[in-house]
């Protein structure tokens, strides 16, 4: 792989990261919507919840939830 | 004798700096083995040594040590004496004085050359280690320098499977790995092992999961709307190693360590998706009270 190919790869990754982030967030929200009681049970028992997504299992804790609700719109 | 001296000078001025730079770079990253002809290898060595050598000569001239050690005529005398026996016999005394000066001239250049090569290699190591931060630079020139000077010296697998390409910030690298027996694994890329030539030997995943393909297809035939996310089975264990020879393809994903910290810009009037999270928090708060 030469410098040009790597440069293209870097640009490609950068272009896709935002799309991945939107998709991952949407999957987490959709899972919480669909399995709200189960997620709530996990939070009650462990102060955290494991959310299965196509990107892998994402562990959310209460601080993440509070930060997501409180924080202004991120870049 | 002349051929011996020229070979020694080539080794000291061209091959030595290249070997030392490779050795120092190997402390930080696995380099890829380039299959090159002897001509290509010498050209690369010349290019790698040319800049530090030019700088070493300028440094030695500016410091006055090169002039103090000897003159251009000393170099001519040494080479003439080695080339011609007749010249050597006629100028024996001058030849040995010139050999002495020639030695000190080379020494004063060589220690500067090696010091610069070591310094540049350490600088490259530093840039490679902090590549994520440097590469996020908005300056096109910085990015081009990093892409064309630093990256081609490193194994592609290291570039892809390390944190080098991750955007600056709290991102992690996950991968879907399809193996030759058609099994799909997923996990957090924790480590990789590379062969001496830079090819992939194995990749290590944390929190590995296996996709239950048969069960999914069976369930999907009954209910086409079924969610594939329910068909991942966690694999007990800490680190899961997959041999490179078993891998058919890799799907690499760069995701935020805290995915909810990313909030897409909402359209005007769109309440966004936070109401789901707000409701969840309210229910938790209600439990606590």
Task: Please tell me about this protein's structure.
The complex is a heterodimer of chains A (75) and B (289). Chain A is α+β, with helices and mostly antiparallel strands and 75 residues long. Chain A contains 3 helices and 2 strands. Chain A has helices at 3-34, 36-46, 62-70, and strands spanning 48-53, 56-61. Chain A has a two-stranded antiparallel ribbon with strand order 1-2. In chain A, helix 1 (3-34) packs across helix 2 (36-46). The longest helix of chain A is centred in the N-terminal third of the chain and has 32 residues, at 3-34. With 289 residues, chain B is α+β, with helices and mostly antiparallel strands. Chain B has helices at residues 2-25, 38-63, 65-69, 72-83, 85-90, 92-129, 131-135, 140-150, 156-161, 213-222, 274-288; strands at residues 171-179, 184-194, 200-211, 232-234, 239-243, 247-256. In chain B, strands 1, 2, 3, 4, 5 and 6 form a 6-stranded antiparallel β-sheet that branches. In chain B, strand 1 (171-179) and strand 2 form a beta hairpin. The model of chain B has no long low-confidence stretch (mean pLDDT 82).
Top keywords for this entry?
heterodimer; A: 75 residues; alpha+beta; two-stranded antiparallel ribbon; 16% strand; elongated; B: 289 residues; six-stranded antiparallel beta sheet; 6 strands
List the helices and strands and how they pair.
The complex is a heterodimer of chains A (75) and B (289).
Chain A: H1 3-34, H2 36-46, E1 48-53, E2 56-61, H3 62-70
Antiparallel strand pairs in A: 1-2
Chain B: H1 2-25, H2 38-63, H3 65-69, H4 72-83, H5 85-90, H6 92-129, H7 131-135, H8 140-150, H9 156-161, E1 171-179, E2 184-194, E3 200-211, H10 213-222, E4 232-234, E5 239-243, E6 247-256, H11 274-288
Helix pairs in contact in B: 1-2, 1-6, 2-6, 4-6
What share of the residues of chain B does DSSP label as strand, in percent? Answer: 15-25%
Structural class of chain A: alpha+beta
Overall, the morphology of chain A is elongated
Helix-and-strand structural type of chain B: alpha+beta
């Amino acid at each position: 792989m030469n410098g040009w190919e790597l440069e293209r790869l870097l640009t490609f990754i950068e272009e896709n990261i935002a799309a991945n982030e939107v998709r991952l967030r949407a999957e987490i929200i959709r899972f919480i919507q669909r399995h709200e009681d189960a997620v709530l049970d996990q939070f009650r028992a462990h102060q955290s919840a494991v959310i299965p997504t196509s990107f892998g299992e994402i562990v959310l804790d209460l601080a993440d939830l509070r930060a997501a609700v409180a924080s202004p719109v991120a870049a | 004798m002349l051929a011996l001296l020229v070979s020694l000078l080539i080794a000291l001025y061209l091959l030595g700096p290249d070997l030392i730079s490779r050795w120092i770079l190997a402390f930080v990253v696995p380099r890829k083995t380039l299959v090159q002809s002897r001509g290509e290898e010498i050209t690369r060595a010349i290019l790698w040594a040319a800049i530090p050598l030019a700088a070493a000569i300028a440094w030695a001239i500016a410091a006055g040590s090169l002039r103090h050690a000897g003159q251009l005529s000393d170099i001519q005398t040494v080479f003439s004496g080695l080339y011609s026996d007749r010249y050597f016999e006629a100028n024996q005394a001058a030849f040995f004085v010139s050999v002495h000066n020639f030695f000190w001239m080379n020494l004063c250049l060589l220690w500067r050359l090696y010091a610069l090569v070591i310094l540049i290699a350490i600088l490259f190591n530093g840039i490679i280690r902090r590549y994520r931060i440097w590469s996020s630079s908005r300056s096109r020139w910085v990015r081009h320098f990093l892409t064309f000077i630093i990256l081609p010296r490193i194994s592609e697998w290291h570039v892809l499977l390390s944190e080098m390409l991750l955007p600056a910030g709290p991102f992690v690298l996950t991968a879907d790995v399809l193996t030759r027996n058609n099994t799909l694994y997923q996990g957090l890329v924790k480590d990789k092992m590379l062969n001496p030539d830079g090819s992939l030997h194995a990749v290590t995943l944390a929190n590995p999961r296996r996709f239950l393909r048969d069960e999914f297809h069976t369930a999907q035939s009954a209910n086409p709307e079924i969610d594939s996310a329910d068909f991942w089975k966690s694999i007990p264990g800490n680190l899961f190693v997959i041999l490179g020879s078993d891998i058919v393809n890799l799907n690499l994903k760069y995701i935020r360590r805290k995915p909810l910290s990313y909030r897409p810009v909402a359209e005007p009037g769109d309440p966004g998706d936070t109401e789901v999270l707000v409701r969840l928090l309210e229910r938790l708060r209600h439990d606590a009270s």
